[in-house]
Amino acid sequence: MASSGNSPPRLPPPSPNQVYVKMAALNGGFITLPERNFVTNADPKWATTTPSMCFLIEHPTGSGKPDRIVFDLGIKRDLTKYLPATRKHITERQPVYSTPDARASLLAGGFDPAKDIDYVCLSHVHWDHVGEPLDYPNSKFIVGSGTLYILENGAPNYPPERIIEEGVLPPDRTVELPPTPGSERKHFAHSGKSNHQWQSLSTLPNVVDYFGDGSVYVVDAPGHIHGHVNALLRVGPEKWVYLGGDCCHDRRIMTGERGIAEYDDGHGKLKSVHAELPIARNTIQNIQKLIEVNGDTVEWVIAHDTKWACENQARFLPGWMY
């Protein structure tokens, strides 16, 4: 769609015979986030127990049986399965509730993760999003560029103790998206990348039209950790849903009420929850512009959005968002 002046283009209108997806939120456990580590002007003593939300997406096909995608897997139900350094980190996020998890949420909605889920798209592989991939023995896993590198080698800008679990994804069923055009991180890309091509869409510099029909876009959302991706879903003629993963951890950052917190790393330097803070800020700005340009046609939700979860319980499976 054409834009006026220097304004970014709006999201495209539906094509003839446009495909729309159906979707529902899933419970993926709960973690507690101290406000001082995530937002500016924080109460140093305040912490919020937030959901680690996942989502079920149904993509219609010509066969009559839809493709079913789960976006993010939340927290492992057995916390002892995490690496020692991760278990230590989890002690700083208490209380943590690992049930109901994504598997239980799907089963409660009538879906068997072992049989009914075709794809799992992970926004990234932090402990509260990677869940239990073994629950999905027949699913293809979709991850952002650089994910397989950090699974094998650990994440840059992280402590020396390994907190990223090696071998958590099945190599024969995992598709890593290619580096974005002009990316400086090509050395992190895995040789087994997919054949998908990046394109720009409205204010988003790099998206992949995963099924080629304008209904499911995987969005490059760098800054938080290598391989971080979001999803943009077409759910109606004039309605989209943006799944922001961990682009930020508090909805007030997205609305502009607060900024991203920086705090002492224990060695006299500032750090944040994002591996590359300037890039993370740029990602957030692109999403904010998307919402501004497209108005109420875009509903957005981030993984740890307590307010959204509280106000939308009826849209968790077995209920549906759209």
Tell me the Rg in angstroms. 19 Å
Average predicted local confidence, pLDDT:
93
Dominant shape? globular
Q: N-to-C SSE series?
A: EEEEEHHHEHEHEEEEEEHEEHEH
Q: What is the name of the CATH topology? A: Metallo-beta-lactamase, Chain A
Helix amount, in percent? 10-25%
Which stretches of 5+ consecutive residues score pLDDT under 50? none
Record the strand order, biggest sheet. 1-4-5-6-7-8
Domain Metallo-beta-lactamase: 111-131
Keywords: Hydrolase, Metal-binding, Zinc
Family: Belongs to the metallo-beta-lactamase superfamily.
GO molecular function: hydrolase activity; metal ion binding
Polypeptide structure, described:
- This protein has 322 residues and is of the alpha/beta class.
- The chain has one domain: Ribonuclease Z/Hydroxyacylglutathione hydrolase-like (Metallo-beta-lactamase, Chain A), CATH 3.60.15.
- The protein is 18% helix and 22% strand.
- The protein contains 8 helices and 16 strands.
- The chain has helices spanning 84-90, 102-108, 113-116, 127-130, 147-153, 251-254, 277-294, 306-311; strands spanning 22-26, 30-34, 47-51, 54-59, 67-71, 119-121, 140-143, 174-176, 199-201, 204-209, 216-220, 229-236, 239-243, 263-264, 270-271, 298-301.
- The strands form 4 sheets. A 6-stranded mixed sheet has the order 1-4-5-6-7-8. The protein has a 6-stranded mixed sheet with strand order 9-10-11-12-13-16, with helices on one face.
- A hairpin with a 2-residue loop joins strand 12 and strand 13 (239-243).
- The longest helix is centred in the last third of the chain and has 18 residues, at 277-294.
- The protein is globular, with a radius of gyration of 19 Å.
- It starts with 21 loop residues before the first strand and ends in an 11-residue tail after the last helix.
- The model has no long low-confidence stretch (mean pLDDT 93).
- Keywords: Hydrolase, Metal-binding, Zinc.
- This is Metallo-beta-lactamase domain-containing protein.
